[in-house]
# Entry
Amino acid sequence: MSGTSLDGIDVVIADLQGHGRQLRVIAWYGASFAFSEELADSLGKAASEEYIGVAELSQLNVRLAYEYVQAITRTLATREDSTQSLDLVGCHGQTIRHLPDKVPCLGMGIHSTFQIGDPATMAQLLGIPVIGDFRLADMACGGQGAPLVPYFDYVIFTHDTEVRGCLNLGGVANLTVLPPGAHADQVYGFDTGPANMIIDALCSRLLDLPFDEGGNIAKSGMVNEALLSELLQDTYFLSEPPKSTGRDYLNHAFLRRLLDQSDRIPAEDLIATATALTARSVWQAYQAFVEPQYAINRLIVSGGGAHNRTLMDLLRDCFAHNRCMVDIETSDSYGIGVDSKEALCFAVLAHETANGIPTSMPSVTGADRPAVLGKLCVP
# Structure
């Protein structure tokens, strides 16, 4: 898995058994690998609105596949395993564009998504079947194509008596709501808005740092409440699910507006404001779109944002508002590493796809029917 943060690749090697609610992760291990500065810059350019030639994008699609393969083999080497121990690889790819809302294209309303990191190249290099390109099948059924993590949340975290929320704080924040003993058509979820992507971009552009380690920069700053209130009025936050978002929208809607204030607002305050934006937009989404139907008992947080102590404290403050009794913990408490959950999710999705099991969730994406996700490439 490599996400919208563009920080690197997370790999998980997992032993999976069963399907649906009976699926079990018997064992897993993982590793993370940072992108080189040159590769991160190239991916950032491709995923932005800057010009990139078709030839360059074609090359990058294959080059990234080589990077994924190297990350897999390096992860296996940490346990002295080899590719011969693998049955299947699932790879989300790097999102270059995610356009979930239909717009006119040559006389038709079209929505689309585009990930690179060619799975056919990976399959030939590894000698193992690879499943990639998970989003488009759901979009062909009328859905948003994202978020995809709710299926994983459904099979791993559904509880018989608790209403649970699963919040993934990657580049984008997405929330899954699991009613007690939920069936697949009762699962609810959507992207709430930015998580780390805007914070990381501000750290990079204003302080030449890759991210706000532990949330220490945000803690040292002061939230600009006027700017925060203005940002929280963005149409994305106010629109009802199903909805999903990505780098192209978030950069335009939030990063540029924050950077425009950098001449008059200190960097630390802008980063504090962006951190508060993540927490408050999650809370705002919960109040507007979840709480009227389901009052969450437990919120399970994963993703890189779980390491940001300031962000986690802000979330706890938000969910303590009006005596909202929500226990907040991380997925580590359930044996699922906060940095490994998304990679493990795509192992699960690939496992289900190889067995012909639909994993898109129309109650989440708005599709008119479930779909088997992904394209199978065989060596």
User: Anything to note?
Assistant: The radius of gyration is 20 Å. DSSP finds 14 helices and twelve strands in the chain. Residues 181 and 206 are 46 Å apart (CA to CA).
